[in-house]
Amino acid sequence: MTLLGQRFAILGIAFFLVLSLFAPRVQAGAYEAELPAELATAKDMCALLPCTEVFPGAKYFSERKGQPPYVEAYDNDTAEKKLLGYVMLSTDITDTPAYSGKPVVTLIGMDLQGRFVGVQVLKHSEPILLLGIPESALVNFNNQYLGKSVKDTIEVGPSRPEENVIGLDAISGATVTVIAQNQVMMMSGAAVARQTGIIEPTVRDPARFLANGQRYDWAQLVQMGLVQQLLVKPEQVGLPRGPEPFIELWFGDLNHPDLGRSLLGERGYDNLRSRLQPQESAFFVIRTAGVESFKGSGFVRGGIYDRVQVKQGADSFTFRDLDYYNLYGLEAAGSPSYNESAIFVIRSAAFSAAYPWKLAFLGNRVDRATGHRSFAVFESKYWMPASLLDGGRPKVVEPDAPWVRVWKSQALPISLFALLLVAVTVVYAYREKLTRLSTHKNKWPVNGFKYAFWAISIFWIGFGYMAQPSITQVLTWFHALLFQWTWSLFLSDPFIFLFWIFIIVTVFLFGRGLFCGWMCPFGSLQEAIYKIAKAVGLKRFQTQLPQKWHDRLKWIKYAVFFFLLAVSMFSMGLAEKLSEVEPFKTTFLVGVLNRSWPYGLFVAAILGVSIFIERPYCKYICPLGASLAMPSTFRWFGLKRKQDCNSCKACAVGCGAQAIDADGRIDHRECLHCLDCMILYTDTKGCPPLAKERKRREKDGLEITPIGANGYFIPIHPVTSHTEQISAKAANGPDPRMPTEPVAPFHTAGESRLKWILLEVRDHVWPWSTEGWHSQRALQVAGFSLAVAATVAWVMAAMGSLSSGAIIGWWFGWSVYEVLIRLSGRRYVKDGVWWRGNYRAASVMDMMSYVGFKNLLIGAALFLALKTLGLLNL
Ligand code: SF4
Ligand code: SF4
């Protein structure tokens, strides 16, 4: 049977390798599709795009018009042609990002009544739609818009007729993508519908100003928020970082008499008012830095200013040449000098200076890798202070951000989930109470809780809410941390967000075992299958790999993790595809029956092997488990061991994770916190040394005292030493309470606190030792040059002349070197809480975990610091 087990495991691993090779060949239609380079700027958009497919029946399309742009769809191209509706490109209107952080480029057709008549996704970067969920799911989602009107309130989720909300069916597992898509559809449709009169502008009460004749200088105007800045840095539009902004604009209201007179002077203000109708509003814009024109080089008389726009609520206001007046000067004392200026007039009565509004600068962002341009909007908000408005500021209900809507709409299940996570943590924190209530024959005080949490994690979290954490999230977060951290991206999936908070906290407190052993849906599913098989009589077929093989094969999962991490540095898309080594998507998100057979077979193979071997996937393949195992090296609270564990094999035999070695030491990277060994620890009938002592006492008629914290009977007489209870063999063996031999580095004893801290810091940042320096000179020199190279890479990066890939490469190289040099000189790590001095000898994996984790934190901190200071251009 052992042979059978081995074959199963090897088959499973081979299958994964085959699948990994197979995965990259599967290419979805619109994933990172190539779009014409001139798409963002071409006048004849429909010459480049399949407009007829989103507007059935249309034969002729106009050039781009309006701001934001759209094209008109006609029934023919003759002089008598009839207007049928409009076609718009979503990225002309909004750059709302989806889950990938990039927009889903969508072509939309809309008839004259504002009904959607066609939707086509031209390009997306959503990895979940690459292999996890078929792209047809997004097509089906978009088809739900057909026939619905842009005037309707359309939301993802159930319909609410009493609130006139029309619901759309979400795509399970891609909620964030479809919420973003809904926002794109509605914003795009509304922007064109408002321009073309399909949607009437909102009616807002005109502003009633409180004027007292006060004049403000520029500093006061800035301080009170009466003039606002709109700053765009070159790196925000894909240009090399430089000292000069791409454009710096200042703008402000000219309607309030005190502001208008402060800025334009008496004559200037009166002159302006005399040219405006009572309902018309005006504001000024000046450019104080940058060479980019906000009026736009393409502006011609009679045309539209296509680089500035005012937005108020859902309405946007654009400007033609007749809406432009010259600004002859700013009279406010201390006004900055400027090199471009304008006064723009908003003629629509829908605008009210009493309500908040935004100045939007519409630009193009150039992708430096591909040279592609994409639409980008930079906005700055303006709202007149309440003290200048009669009756104060009007009440404005801002629509919630999409992620806020997700949290609100699922408030109850999210709260229950948060409670569940707290409950698991509390139950585990009281593990010793539970294990003392249990025995090797009755584990229900522990298992009752554990099995309940498994059931909840499999059915409610996994199949119900599809909140299975995944290595792709680790990779995404890692990249986001380095390149573009957006909280809203992570908050838009509340279950995963909370799950990760739980994982991060509990990994540092207890190690990965609490998540992996108690809460991971797929891990629970595997072990539940194993337990059920055992209960139904298959126990005699169940086995473990020989420890020798287990100790070799367990490294595979780390190799898979590092491989994915390395690939993700070069191509997130490829790393996402290779992450199919995780069977999670197939099991929970998409369903075995909805995927092609290799994926279904992969899941079936893992779950099939799980009947015979406990958690094969967790032990040997799972990259997520590996990524959590490495920081588990430094968990604060471990499991208890007693000296006799070094010679007694009872716990090791019963450890399903095979995490206990021949010396009775627990490998906390592999331990899944089943707590079986903790039950034995205090079990006077199951733990051999305790049973022996119990029998001795019973025979001698001595008192049976409780088991102390050290795992031995509390001595009958206080003077009796526990060592009397330890067998001679155990007493002379290794200490199983530490994962490796304890060591005492030079700086641990007898130092003052300040000196201890300094030495501690030095220990973390200076990997060399005197002995190592003498004995490993060649390596030292090589490493030193590598360190210099890494430093140079950082400096060059700060100067904007090295790509992030090179920096990461250097950083990785340095980490490899640091592992090697520490192993040759300072071969120790800390065990348990960092402020204590429990040092122990480091294994290679201990050192890799320590250096990898430390350098990741230092690297991320440096990245963030350099980025915050504007010194890093990624
Ligand atoms: S090793 Fe992977 S599948 Fe197993 S419990 Fe941990 S995360 Fe889940
Ligand atoms: S028996 Fe093994 S897996 Fe279970 S808690 Fe002990 S060391 Fe961890």
Output the keywords.
alpha+beta; 5-stranded antiparallel β-sheet; single chain; 874 residues; binds iron/sulfur cluster; 32 helices; 18 strands
The set of bound ligands, ions and cofactors reads: iron/sulfur cluster
Backbone CA Rg: 33 Å
Distance from N terminus to C terminus (CA atoms, Å) equals: 55 Å
Mean pLDDT: 85
Question: Tally the helices: what do you get?
Answer: 32
The secondary structure category is alpha+beta
Beta strands, count? 18
Fraction of helical residues: 40-55%
Shape: elongated
Largest sheet: 5 strands, antiparallel
Oligomeric form of this entry?
A: single chain
Q: What low-confidence regions span 5 or more consecutive residues with pLDDT below 50?
A: 1-28
* Main β-sheet, spatial strand arrangement: 1-2-3-4-5
Portion in strands: 5-15%
